Amino acid sequence: MTPFLTAIFLLGLSSGATAANFSPVFEWNELDFNWPSEASRTTALKDGTFKPENIDPRFMAVHGSRIFLSLDDTYGGIPVTLGSLPTSGASSAPPKLTPFPSWDMHGKEGDCDKLERTKGLEVDSVGRLWVLDSGGDDCYAKIWTIDLNNNDHTKIIHRFPVRRLMQDLVLDETPDGTFAYISQGIEQNVVVFSLERNQSWIVKTPEIEVFSIALSPKKDQEPRQLYLSKWYSKELYSISVAALRNGAGTENPRLIGKWTADPYRMLLNNQGTMFTALLRQNYISSWNTSQPFAEQRFHEVAGLNSGLPFTFALDQSGTLWMTVFDNKKKPRYRLLKAAVSEQSLMASPDAANAAEYGVKGRKLIDSSVFFVFLLAVAIL
Ligand SMILES: *[C@@H]1O[C@H](CO)[C@@H](O)[C@H](O)[C@H]1NC(C)=O
Ligand SMILES: *[C@@H]1O[C@H](CO)[C@@H](O)[C@H](O)[C@H]1NC(C)=O
Fold first, then answer.
1. Exposed, middle or buried by CB within 10 Å (0-12, 13-18, 19+), for 172?
2. Which of 167, 176, 223, 357 is most deeply buried (CB count within 10 A of its CB)?
3. How far is the centre of ligand 2, averaged over its atoms, from the C-alpha of 290 (Å)?
4. Closest ligand 1 atom, CA of 198?
């Protein structure tokens, strides 16, 4: 390659999808909760019901000035599995997690009217947080809604009729009603819930244990696609939501492509860019779904040490919020944000904020263009 072509090639790389400029919001060496009293915290630390080192965020949603996180409870010591954080803070100390919607709504194992093991989260268009709750040994899985615009009014909108392990949830709001599509992690099916009918059913996906899921943006003509990743596989599939809404049955998802590792979290913005976090990888990848499948490196965090380091979610103004978890090194937790969508900047209350990051993003591209220019000059 001639130096000139090299410069052009580098220019092409630097202006790709990797130009998102994440800015740090908070960093923590240890996460904690806002406890009802110091005494209750001390007791919980003593009896092992609270082990701060085990806090590991897995699912995320953002609405207004609040971030919601589902916490993994595999290793115990997690007194509540759903907490909230503010999107900004006045003090220099990073905020603590507030049990959401309250301490009282988190029960002991076996209380089926309380939140037990929260998993996938999503906020709908009227500001209700949908919470998928896997239940426990004594309780079946259920779906909660928490009305964020109405004093966080909390209710169970569906109890599944049989025991089900649950994983992730996405919402499809249509003129014919609202549907939730749910993955169970290791089952060869998608679970569908219809809000209007208050019914759930199963669509079988032979040979494909549906792990992580993501929904394509609303478009006028084509039916939306539910993207599926397969448990312990790099493969990405899709299935038309029309097939899911029709009721119980069997569908064969279409193979789309293969990532560089196994996806555990996927998300699409309104422009159809898919963001994917991959097992044991220190980067997030992206794919422009308007084009044939091609994985791009979207954001990398150097030296990360954990199996599932990232959670992310989009807010209403198209800002991507992300937590980064490091199992060993400090800071063990980080919250970052970046503007990744252009269309919604106008309408949003956060427009000024988002525009600011847009400008930073452009500055980054400008400086990389300048760098390539210098490099080309040096080589020539
Ligand atoms: C919806 O169905 C579940 C069980 O399938 C039931 O417990 C619940 O009361 C129903 N909700 C309404 C609003 O009818
Ligand atoms: C995605 O690809 C389409 C079609 O090539 C293009 O028009 C669009 O600008 C791309 N989106 C982004 C965010 O690059």
1. middle
2. 167
3. 6
4. 1
